[in-house]
Structure to design on (278 residues):
């Protein structure tokens, strides 16, 4: 039985006085301060893609010396180019109560580097790669002429270049397109005609500071997929009593309308100096 009657204790001559005691805790170690981001690299962030649309994982983790895993978030995680900054932050919602360490800092910033880059300016395409493009276009035209008995020769003279670049990231499409335009002189059924032609490549990239295109992947009025059929990019011409199919376009305006204008909703257009542009 517990008695807490104050008068009873006073009657019995029992008096209580308040008291306290301080206890000093000993033996505990201070939490060790460490770098939670030790050893982390851009590769650990899952860096991938081609600038300006590089990406990292939005959520990553790192393992501490006690083998516990710490969750972290990355921001920004997409739309990245070389030189951009990505900040990795310890996730405040992560269950870290039983971790025996204190972080030196709660975040670390990484500088994006090593991404391939899409060509975004005509000035990035140097003379060496342009010479290769022109040769590929000429080879395609002469190959077509060799396989078509109506054609004698095709001579292409480059007159300028269009560069189309996407206004925003495109899912399943192309980011850029290089279109080199030519004045074409062709001999058809013994008669020389003049018109306009082109060769185009998609997704040209900058690699080690130089523009690179896949010369095996191109479009042209003379490409092999059009060898066996009339139609495609060309028009009828009458020579004597016969009608022939001339590859190319009658005017630069017609070429622009069909090969450039159709893509301006999703792409910006840069034209080399003096080349037709609406």
């Amino acid at each position: 039985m517990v008695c807490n009657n104050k008068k009873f204790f006073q009657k019995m001559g029992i008096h209580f006085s308040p008291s306290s005691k301080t206890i000093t805790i000993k033996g505990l170690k201070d939490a060790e301060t460490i770098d939670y981001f030790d050893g982390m690299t851009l590769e650990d962030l899952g860096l991938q893609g081609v600038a300006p649309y590089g990406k990292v994982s939005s959520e990553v983790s790192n393992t501490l010396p006690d083998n516990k895993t710490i969750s972290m978030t990355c921001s920004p995680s997409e739309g990245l180019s070389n030189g951009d900054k990505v900040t990795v932050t310890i996730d405040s919602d992560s269950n870290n109560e039983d971790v025996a360490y204190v972080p030196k800092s709660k975040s670390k910033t990484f500088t994006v580097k090593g991404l391939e880059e899409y060509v975004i300016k005509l000035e990035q395409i140097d003379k060496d790669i342009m010479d290769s493009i022109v040769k590929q276009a000429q080879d395609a035209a002469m190959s077509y002429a060799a396989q078509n008995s109506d054609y004698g020769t095709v001579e292409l003279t480059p007159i300028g270049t269009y560069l189309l670049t996407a206004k925003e990231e495109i899912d399943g499409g192309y980011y850029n397109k290089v279109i080199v335009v030519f004045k074409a002189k062709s001999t058809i059924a013994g008669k020389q005609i003049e018109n306009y032609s082109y060769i185009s490549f998609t997704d040209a990239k900058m690699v080690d500071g130089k523009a690179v295109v896949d010369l095996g992947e191109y479009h042209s009025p003379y490409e092999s997929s059009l060898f066996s059929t009339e139609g495609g990019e060309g028009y009828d011409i009458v020579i004597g009593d016969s009608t022939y199919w001339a590859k190319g376009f009658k005017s630069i305006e017609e070429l622009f309308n069909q090969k450039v204008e159709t893509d301006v909703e999703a792409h910006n257009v840069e034209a080399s100096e003096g080349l037709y542009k609406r």
Summary: The chain has two domains: 31-117, 119-271.
